[in-house]
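The material for today's practical consists of a large collection of protein records. There is nothing in a record beyond a sequence line and a structure line. Backbone structure tokens are a discrete shorthand for how the chain folds in space. Nothing more is needed to start thinking about how sequence determines fold. As an example, a complete record with its sequence and its structure tokens follows.
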Amino acid sequence: AALLLFVGGFLVAHLVERLLAVRQAAHGASEERVPQVGMTAAAAMVGHSLMDGVALGAAFQVGGGMGAAVALAVITHDFADGFNTYTITSLYGNARRKALTMLYADAAAPVVGAATTLLFTLPEELLGCYLGFFGGVLLYLAAAEILPEAHHDHPARSTLLCTVAGVCFIWVVVGVAG
């Protein structure tokens, strides 16, 4: 089931990205700013942050070390999610007020997601499925966004250095959690 949901997560991420691209294309030239696309993308970031919170709560159900490792990961990358949420909302022509509203929603989402896990204990089978699905989403993001960016015509040494540093950081976090 986890492997099938891994594939499902990959496909869902691909479909969401394609639907956003089709929606933008339907509104005219690529130079035109489409506020609805920005709001949809920001809402997806809020959903992502909500699921980060669920992962955080579920990790603490597994154990304190696992919870601490996931908390570190969620907290550090949610700063970037906040920047991205505000930026994408603004870049697509939304008012500052809407961008700030989406930023606040993105900031609250992990807390709300983690709080929901106080209401239930995630069964091990469901946790495996959850992780499988989001593993597929992450693989799609790596394949569609991160790897192509690593092959652009910009300084490859810094990209390689940052990639190796990121892998080493994850290695340390996993070692501390284990």
The chain has six helices and no strands. The helical segments are 2-26, 35-62, 64-91, 96-116, 124-150, 156-177. The mean pLDDT is 83. The chain has one domain: 2-177.
